Amino acid sequence: MAQIARDCKIYSLWEGTNYIQSMDLVGRKWNLKQGQLFLDWLQDIETIIKTMAGREEFTAESAILEKGLASYKRIKSMMDEFKQQGQGEMLPLYATRILHATSQLCCGALLLDQAALAADKIRELGREHWDLAYYQGKIDAARFYIKNHVPAIMNLEAILQHSDDTAITIMEEALGR
Asked: How far is it, in rounded angstroms, from Cα 53 to Cα 143?
């Protein structure tokens, strides 16, 4: 029983720190040096995507990442609009999901970069090399992640287009006693 209690407690600690990190992202990191640092980082992601788009074996993954990056930029624009319209409470409401979208974009780009290195190594060493499984695993992991996790960014954009603030506006009495 004590083990179950300890396992459950870690979730509340993790969620609290996750929220703090998400608020730091949307409240501070997005705005460092008038937002230029974050824009530079997005440019680095875009450079990786464009570089990989030229590689025939990664065109599908590059296209998904490109859509993810475009969605992420629109998500940021929507959050900026909410602030300008006096709806600043939308940032904390969606901050954790934005943090996840940020990591999905970053991890997808970095995994694709690793996959390209692995593909180069396979060509260099040949398919008979004893380390083929390791390099092929890098490629397959990148493909899986990009095709299964990165589309969540586009889903978040679709959710935000509804501008749903029900979690903020719900009457306290409706939550029960």
From this structure: 14
Establish whether 81 is a catalytic residue.
Answer: no
Which entry of 15, 81, 128, 157 is annotated as an active-site residue? 15
**170: in domain:** no
Alpha helices in 31-169 (DSSP H): 36-53, 59-84, 90-125, 132-148, 151-160, 166-169
- Nearest partner of 41 among 103, 96, 98, 95, judged by Cα: 103
> What would the pLDDT profile of 50-84 be if each residue is shown by its tens digit?
999 889 999 999 999 999 999 999 999 999 999 99
User: Is-contact 43 51, C-beta < 8 A?
Assistant: no
Per-residue pLDDT reduced to its tens digit, 119-135: 999 999 998 999 999 99
For residues 150 and 152, what is the distance between their CA atoms, to the nearest angstrom? Answer: 5
Whether 102 maps to a domain, the answer reads yes
> Among 50, 43, 75, which residue's Cα sits nearest to residue 65?
50
Q: Which two tokens stand for residue 152?
A: 């969540």
Structural domain count, the chain: 1
Number of Cβ within a 10 Å radius of residue 107: 15
Domain of residue 89 covers 2-163
The reply to whether 14 falls in a domain is yes
